[in-house]
Amino acid sequence: MNDYLEKLDILPFHMRDSVRLWIERGIGPGSFLTAVLSNDLFGALGRADEENSRALKSYGVYFYSHAPSGCYGSPLRVAEWAKSGGLAGRGLLERAS
Predict the structure, then answer these.
(1) Consecutive H or E run containing 79
(2) Do 3 and 66 contact (CB within 8 A), yes or no?
(3) In whole angstroms, what is the distance from residue 36 CA to residue 45 CA?
(4) In sequence order, which ranges of 16-55 are alpha helices (DSSP H)?
(5) From first to last of its 97 residues, what are the pLDDT tens digits of the chain?
(6) DSSP readout, 10-23?
(7) How far apart are CA 91 and CA 54, in angstroms?
(8) Is residue 92 within 8 Å of residue 33, measured between CB atoms?
(9) Sequence-distant (≥ 6) Cβ neighbours of residue 27 within 8 angstroms
(10) Which CA distances in Å does 36 have to 6, 13, 27, 79, 82?
(11) 67-29-33 Cα angle (round to 5)
(12) Dist. CA 48–CA 91, nearest whole Å
């Protein structure tokens, strides 16, 4: 279940907390990450800083292979994840603080 934590290091350092908070609590990410999560490639490219632009493939690998499948994929799935409060809202947060 904590694979999403162990693999955060494939993402740019300045984005790791945002991704973790999104997965664990459904806390709204910025516009770039929202575009990534929603499968909006052109939106993500338009909002990416230089480092995130270079890391787009890593985001794809991370979310497809390591993140809970319900937290990404379409605008509807993103909205539902946020509304439910992420893993914590689903009673699935096992991470020790």
Answers:
(1) helix 75-84
(2) yes
(3) 9
(4) 16-25, 31-37, 41-47, 50-54
(5) 579 999 999 999 999 999 999 999 999 899 999 999 999 999 999 999 999 999 999 999 999 999 999 999 999 999 999 999 999 999 888 654 4
(6) GS-GGGHHHHHHHH
(7) 34
(8) no
(9) 21, 82, 86
(10) 20, 16, 15, 13, 15
(11) 65
(12) 32
- Residue 33 CB: number of other CB atoms within 10 A? 22
CA distances from 20 to 7, 42, 59 (A): 11, 23, 13
Give me the residue label for tokens 């603080």: 97
Which residues 6+ apart lie within 8 Å of 47 measured at CB? 30, 31, 32, 35
Cα–Cα separations (whole angstroms), residue 30 to 18, 58, 61, 95: 8, 18, 20, 24
